[in-house]
Specification:
CATH class: Alpha Beta
Shape: globular
Number of domains: 1
Number of helices: 6
Largest sheet: 3 strands, mixed
CATH topology: L-arginine/glycine Amidinotransferase, Chain A
Strand order of the largest sheet: 2-1-15
Structural class: alpha/beta
Radius of gyration: 17 Å
Low-confidence stretches: none
């Protein structure tokens, strides 16, 4: 089946044309419930506004959802859904405090006319941060504590009729089931032939696949992986948004000829373990 017109993401690097974000709430328990480091709540809002302004500066249409009091993680709009070339897939989330988010996103999508391909059901759980599109026909999904085998089977059921191959790679235990480790914690495609990778936690099968596809890799050190240096949003091939303060990976990107735009993300990104990709749900890449 052919892809949609005006919607859909055939990869993670083509020019960003339309994106959904959600304004952060300042009402809720950031630490005990959501496992953030306590942010400066006023600065959290300011940094998100500045981030939205940055995205609009690239010419993208930015759709802003209302904050949801009590759901502090809802600012990370990448996780409740997976956008495909054939419509969005609404997910079910393992982290208990995030379980209401997919229903809220469905309501936002329906109001805005976002095509919906399907939704996870039964015991399937997944976060959008566990998926990486290599191209319009190749979706890589990390199987770990946030995404289970049932979800991967349902992704295949929804996407294989459209000619999409769903490849599963295993994520490591790392800090255990309560920690945040998504596939996109360790890889960010930044051009069709280039990705930023934190190799120490990257699945071997993923690294082998990148080599097979001729996708070169820029490596990230552990200290900058922890400050979202491996979570980078491509707004076009070779043009990216990076959380400020990751100077080592910034230098490597500059040396590779990548155009880098930094944003202040101490509160909205680093303290919640979510980078610029996590803050966005791309709806259309041309």
């Amino acid at each position: 089946m052919s892809a949609l017109t005006g919607w859909g993401t055939p990869d993670m690097v083509s020019p960003l044309k339309k994106v959904f974000v959600r304004a952060p709430t300042t009402v809720g328990d950031f630490v005990a419930d959501a496992q953030w480091r306590e942010p400066d709540r006023g600065l959290l809002v300011t940094q998100h506004v500045e981030f939205v302004q940055l995205l609009r500066g690239f010419g993208a249409e930015v759709l802003v959802g209302d904050p949801i009091d009590g759901l502090v993680d809802a600012v990370y709009t990448h996780d409740p859904a997976v956008m495909t070339p054939h419509g969005s897939i609404l997910l079910q989330m393992r982290k208990p405090v995030r379980s209401p988010e997919p229903a809220a996103m469905r309501a936002d999508f329906e109001r805005r006319g976002v095509p919906i391909l399907g939704a996870l059901t039964g015991d399937a759980v997944s976060d959008g941060g566990d998926k990486v599109w290599l191209d319009a026909r190749t979706l890589v999904v990390g199987r770990g504590y946030r995404t289970n085998a049932s979800a991967i089977a349902q992704f295949r059921g929804l996407l294989e009729p459209h000619g999409v191959s769903v490849i599963s790679v295993d994520l490591p235990h790392y800090l255990g089931p309560d920690a945040v480790l998504h596939l996109m914690s360790v890889i960010s495609p930044i051009a069709h032939d280039l990705a930023v990778v934190y190799e120490h936690l990257a699945p071997v099968a993923l690294l082998e696949l990148l080599d097979e596809r001729g996708i070169a890799q820029i490596t990230v050190d552990e200290d900058e992986m922890l400050t979202q240096g491996a979570n980078i949003l491509a707004v076009a091939p070779g043009e990216v948004v990076l959380a400020a303060g990751n100077d080592k990976v910034r230098a490597k990107l500059d040396a590779a000829g990548v155009k880098v735009h930094e944003f202040a993300g101490t509160e909205v990104a680093v303290k919640g373990d979510g980078g610029p990709t996590c803050l966005t749900q791309p709806l259309w890449r041309a």
